[in-house]
Amino acid sequence: MQGLIQRVKYAKVEINNQVVGEIGNGILLLLGVEKHDDKQTSDKLLHKVSNYRIFTDENDKMNLSLKDIKGELLVVSQFTLAADTKKGMRPSFSSAATPSQANELYEYFVAQAKELGLTIAKGEFGADMQVSLCNDGPVTFNLSV
């Protein structure tokens, strides 16, 4: 499971010019699911996303997590994160989960994040989405478990 996180001042996702998910200060998570992923993998990534210290403290050090700042989380499914780009000039998606497996784990991830008490917004799995954001820093990390 791949999670590309971006520290944002705000972010939103639109489908057909309609906002379907929007957050203020927090994390935009682009979530890619691979064939070997399961609920345990999802739980590990959620723990990492919610506790990863990428927000600055009073000394301007990246010492605070999403949970610490009570930030918001926007989760967007991102099939292309599962791409193998090591050779050739066209990505291979052979390691990507099937759409049904990926959607199940995407929805599971969102549900578990809500159970943690995080303020959550999300995109729509499989939809053609437009994502807008203000990357704060910029700060971006690729998390994998």
Task: Please provide a written account of the structure.
With 145 residues, this protein is of the alpha/beta class. Helices cover 23% and strands 39% of the residues. It is built from three helices and eight strands. The strands form two sheets. Strands 1, 2, 3, 6, 7 and 8 form a six-stranded mixed β-sheet that branches. The protein has a two-stranded antiparallel ribbon with strand order 4-5. A hairpin with a 2-residue loop joins β1 (2-15) and β2. It starts with a strand and ends with a strand.
The shape, in one word, is globular
Distance between the termini: 6 Å
Helix and strand run: EEEHEEHEHEE
Helix/strand-derived class? alpha/beta
Number of DSSP E strands:
8
Helix coverage percent: 10-25%
The share of residues in extended strands comes to 35-45%
Quickly list its features.
145 residues, alpha/beta, 6-stranded mixed sheet, two-stranded antiparallel sheet, 3 helices
Q: How would you sum up this structure in a few lines?
A:
The chain is of the alpha/beta class and about 140 residues long. About 25% of the residues lie in helices and about 40% in strands. Strand 1 and strand 2 (about 20-25) form a beta hairpin.
Write the layout of secondary structure elements.
Layout: E1 2-15, E2 18-23, E3 26-32, H1 39-51, E4 55-56, E5 62-64, H2 66-69, E6 72-77, H3 99-115, E7 119-122, E8 130-144
Parallel strand pairs: 3-6, 6-7
Antiparallel strand pairs: 1-2, 1-3, 1-8, 4-5
